[in-house]
Amino acid sequence: MGELLTPTHLVIILVVALLLFGPRKLPELGKGLGEGLRGFKEAIKGEPAVAAKTETPAAKTEVTTEAK
User: Fold this and answer.
1) Out of 17, 40, 56, 62, which residue is the most buried by the measure of CB atoms under 10 Å away?
2) Is 26 or 58 the better-scoring residue by pLDDT?
3) Does 18 fall in a domain?
């Protein structure tokens, strides 16, 4: 089992994933996998789920510079 994740095997897995899903879908799949693993860890530890980060628009302020 220790020889299962050698660098050669990881490269082959990456090439196969690229052929199956294409370069545009891989970042989305990685993000989904990461969020799933994070949720799984939180469930195992018994920590409350952290709300997803929501982007709030920053207050727009106009900065005027006076020419002297």
Assistant:
1) 17
2) 26
3) yes
